[in-house]
Structure prediction request, 141 residues.
Amino acid sequence: MYKYQLKPPFNDITSIKVLILYKFNGKVDIYLSIREADSMINPKYHLFICTSCRVNGKQQGLCYSKGSVDIVGSVMQEIEERDLSGEVMVNNTGCFGICDKGPIMVVYPQGVWYGNLTSDDIEEIFDKHIEGGEVVTRLQI
Ligand code: FES
Prediction:
């Protein structure tokens, strides 16, 4: 028996929308919206963005110094505005080992690597790749 019982219409986990706001690195508010929890087990797209996270929790490195935290914020904003929280999952990562091409984002299931990203590139990636199914070749590395 759970301590807290959800009442209809919230007793169906797939209908729950959870909005978590938290301060990311003291700089950016990140919105994590889980709309359909079941689909997150196997999202349509899974995005990994290097924010130069170290195992000790500190962020140090080229992607971080080149604004990757802002890119995570832009990605989260596109997900929210396009109502894609049930289809697109995003995680920030540690170094991919190709720092000179950072900031890096890898898009699965295709395994497409984008590099030298800025926040201005994110809208195009969502227009063409995430919603259009077409790789943005000018940003591909
Ligand atoms: S710090 Fe991002 S690839 Fe190395």
About this structure: The chain has a mean pLDDT of 80. The first strand starts at residue 18 and ends at 24. The chain is about 25% helix and 25% strand. The helical segments are 37-41, 62-65, 68-81, 122-130.
